[in-house]
Specification:
The protein folds into two domains: about 10-220, 3-Layer(aba) Sandwich (Rossmann fold), CATH 3.40.50.10320; about 240-309, no CATH class. The protein is globular and about 55 Å long. Helix 1 (about 20-35) packs across helix 7 (about 185-195) and helix 7 runs antiparallel to helix 8. Helix content is about 35%, strand content about 20%. A seven-stranded mixed beta sheet has the order 3-2-1-4-5-7-6, sandwiched between helices. A four-stranded antiparallel beta sheet has the order 9-8-12-13, covered by helices on one side. Strands 10-11 form a two-stranded antiparallel sheet. With about 300 residues, it is of the alpha/beta class. The chain has helices spanning about 20-35, 50-60, 65-85, 105-110, 110-125, 140-155, 185-195, 200-215, and strands at about 10-15, 40-45, 95-100, 130-135, 160-165, 180, 220, 245-250, 255-260, 265-270, 275, 290-295, 305-309. The protein contains eight helices and 13 strands.
């Protein structure tokens, strides 16, 4: 399916970090602007919890509070330059300043204020097209951002915008329901020029970032379904050896529900799959589940991540 963009298009791009807007939506942004439409950027974090590029660029080992704040300010300046390269006035940038690598925690611990902040941005920008991270993105900030945006859209009284999900961290074949965006050599070259404005990230990871940005921009079309099933089947069958450390969290319009795996309202069906009981039944708003462990690890990406119920 191809996108139809025109002067009435009001695009809101939700970016968890500076550089996501260029990597994932750089050509979409340009096409909306060329069509005479409006573009707004909701930036959830300043990307300040990014120690290895900072150590590389600043030739320092210790990263404290002051260093992180300065790094975040630097990345804010970079995203503003990238937006100018894409034809967007930085006044269209709406930064929330949430903790980098902390959006999942914000969702779990400050659910109502977090959703309210996104709903307020929707009310201010009044988009009819929203581009957000994919639920299946392996970066925890991206998956949590998807959940929050979807719930904010379901509560916003200003309309029903078309919703597109983009993937940054993960394999493209993990996202279905593609919306194709036509491109050109000029659009792609300017997208890469915008990416180059994120110098703090390109210094250490330029090859990886260019590889991500070189992928064709294809989006998953998000369609709100009917009321949730009475007993949705979860996509995970974790090893019994991990059960003592696992937690299951469900998020819906009513809030956050969290259990140790052993106490979660689940049972196994005849095929060995786990079925969730009594949560989000009959609720027409979206609901999501996350399987995770509260075990410290140097690996930042989600092992199981989120699913939609």
């Amino acid at each position: 399916m191809a996108l139809s963009l025109n002067a009435d298009t009001r695009l809101l791009v939700v970016a968890p970090h500076p550089d996501d807007e260029s990597i994932a939506t750089g050509e979409l942004i340009q096409q909306v602007r060329e069509s005479g439409g409006d573009v707004q950027i909701l930036l959830l974090t300043n990307g300040d919890n990014n120690p290895w590029p900072q150590r590389w660029v600043e030739r320092r080992l210790r990263i404290g509070t002051d260093e992180r704040r300065r790094w975040g300010e630097r990345r804010r300046g970079e995203v503003e330059r990238a937006l100018r390269q894409l034809g967007v006035d930085p006044v269209a940038l709406h930064p929330l300043g949430w903790p980098d690598m902390g959006i999942t925690e914000r969702l779990f611990e400050d659910f109502i204020p977090a959703v309210s902040a996104l709903t307020a941005c929707l009310a201010a920008c009044r988009p009819n097209l929203v581009a957000m991270p994919a639920l299946g993105d392996h970066h925890p900030d991206h998956g949590a951002a998807h959940v929050l945006v979807r719930l904010a859209v379901s509560q916003w009284q200003g309309g029903a915008p078309e919703m597109l999900a983009y993937l940054v961290h993960g394999r493209e074949d993990e996202v279905t329901g593609r919306v194709k965006l036509d491109s050109s050599v000029g659009l792609h070259a300017n997208k890469l020029a915008a990416l180059a404005c994120h110098q703090s990230q390109m210094a250490l990871s330029g090859k990886r970032m260019r590889r991500l940005a070189d992928r064709a921009e294809r989006y998953q079309s998000i369609k709100e379904g009917a009321a949730g099933m009475a007993a949705p089947v979860l996509p995970w069958v974790p090893s019994a050896a991990l059960h003592p450390w696992l937690r299951l969290t469900v998020v819906d319009s009513r809030g956050v529900h969290d259990w140790p795996w052993s106490k979660a309202p689940i049972s196994q069906d005849g095929q060995g799959r786990y079925v969730l009981h009594g949560v989000a039944a009959g609720d027409p708003s979206p609901a999501f589940a996350k399987l995770h462990m509260y075990v410290p690890s140097p690996w930042i990406f989600d092992r199981w991540g989120w699913c939609e119920l």
